[in-house]
Amino acid sequence: MTSERPVRIAVDAMGGDYAPSEVVKGAVEAARKGGVEILLVGDQAPVEEELKRIGGPALPIVPSEGKITEEEHPALAFRQKPRASVIVATGLVKAGRADAIVTIGSTGAAMAAATIILGLFEGLERPALGGPFLGLAPGTVVLDLGSNVDCRPSQLVSFAVLGSVFARFYLGTENPRVALLSVGAEEAKGNRQVREAIPLFRESGLNFVGNVEGMDLFTGRADVIVCDGFVGNVLVKFAEGLGAAMAGYIRKSLAGRLPDREVEELASSVWGLTNIARKTGGPLFGVNGLVVVGHGASRAEGVAGAIETARRCVELRLVEALRDELARVRERVKL
Amino acid sequence: MTSERPVRIAVDAMGGDYAPSEVVKGAVEAARKGGVEILLVGDQAPVEEELKRIGGPALPIVPSEGKITEEEHPALAFRQKPRASVIVATGLVKAGRADAIVTIGSTGAAMAAATIILGLFEGLERPALGGPFLGLAPGTVVLDLGSNVDCRPSQLVSFAVLGSVFARFYLGTENPRVALLSVGAEEAKGNRQVREAIPLFRESGLNFVGNVEGMDLFTGRADVIVCDGFVGNVLVKFAEGLGAAMAGYIRKSLAGRLPDREVEELASSVWGLTNIARKTGGPLFGVNGLVVVGHGASRAEGVAGAIETARRCVELRLVEALRDELARVRERVKL
Asked: What is the DSSP annotation of B225-258?
């Protein structure tokens, strides 16, 4: 990337529940706002049609063929559909024709494309998923949120490094406090994975503040909380379920006691407090290139939010910072 | 236990944040309601004084010396304070002088006393913690909730058996559907522990319905959801934190829009939906004797609730049913 031209973003126009219409709409919104150049990647005819229907700027289309759905096995689909939108879009980043890819399609497919086409930082086995995941604690970064379900202790250190750089660069947190998610603050508590990770965290040079517990995702005791992807995935889905159930409870409890509109507003804000990642998307961590994944149910606004996230990450040179810092820590800890 | 006399319960009068006063009060309430005989176990003078102050029935006191606090290492405290209330009370069960012990003191101490004095069912390494833990899903039993942080797959089967018997006997669920908590419904997903447990679950004769995800703690897709104690503990504390944060959000959002009393009612019911176990206590699973542990912050009502839980478990012959069923499944699966 050079600083003379705006950030160029390849948007997977075929991914997501409302593709291509909402994706194209979101991309047009982002392009109108400025600061980015968009390349729409998708089946030529339907994407062109959407563009015409919206009557927006004539965004360039990079043609691809078909899409990889959530139901398909990512690696298999990768071989069977080599011209699928997410693959072509990721290829644009590899070729230097785009600075980032944004997709709200299958996360598994985005991860497979990222891993195979762009490659991972040394020492990682899969990209990590993470970021601030709760509206109730927007400054607390948690990872891994579902990608690495079986982790060696050294992988947890890598996640901590990635989360720490993200907190510093993207959220502006100075000297982020890093913690391991455990069942008690005491070092002797925790499962084997956590207990074995502690000495590595101490050696890492990270601002390691020890172990935290489940409630500390809300208490601000740490800026970066690290767990394996099994625990992270269960937590994300549990929070979503709890938020939905709470919203339902609030709707029922307040019906008739406040105006309908106010009840609905409160219920949906309660839901939103447990679902922050759905709004703006987040980067795949550990990839040699910027891949931002948003939620499949995003509408145009969510797509535009994910594009904005990607733009900021590119301008902050996030990928380079993540890679450099991980290499530095790996040197120190011998991960 | 014979059916001719009421259930006899040893109550640890020294455990909990408001001991002995709230514990004695709760025990007196339970005794007044009938159906149980109470033995108060604690330091003679303060317990006698509380009884006098309340002016209730003259409950028998079994004297003990001191208590084990949350801060102490359970096994160490066990040796240093052999006359502590929870140890003496557990001893009454071992000696056949009580049918159950109820404590709202340190869970670790109760588990140590249970393990050392009463012993565990064959094949278990520690008692398991579990039960319905969310007011939003009162019929869904989850275990282990924090005791066994590193589990072999076979232990997960044991938890499933214990949870299944509890659901059948205590909650009246016919043929409870048992599921493994994982990161996706597909068998190929999940961490190694889950993937290795699946064939054992299939052989077990349990009504195994496969894997469920974090949101399914609310969806009723299974009656018994099994996870290791690390995941369970993180979930319980996360739910508590989320409930508290939600309650705070609701207080703030509704202030001035509804009468204060109604706002407070809604906020505290929201909090309560994530904290059901605090109200009534639950048994330690896998112990050769009935030990019911309630939350340390319980007031008299919570203590009386835990006593009622214990009474029901004794009358249902829960411990015998748990032990018999686990032995049967261990025979079948060769755990």
From this structure: EE--HHHHHHHHHHHHHHHHHHHHHHHHHHBTTB
